[in-house]
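Batch job 17 of 40 flagged for manual review because the log was empty.
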Amino acid sequence: MFDFDQYLGFLAFLTILTIGFWLMIFLLTFVIPYWIGGSLIERIKEIREEKKAKRQNT
């Protein structure tokens, strides 16, 4: 059915596909929410500092 070279190519394809699948799962569940959460926290801190600076100037 398969030659040995085709078998190795099929295994390489499955390996790359599996690595890509788990990388996407990792990115969607950990990295992107961490990035969005961190940027929101930094933005909230900036808004608080702007309000504090306005109150001190008046």
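Reviewer: the log was empty due to a logging misconfiguration, but the result itself is present. Residues 4-57 form the longest helix (54 residues). Unflagging and moving on to job 18.
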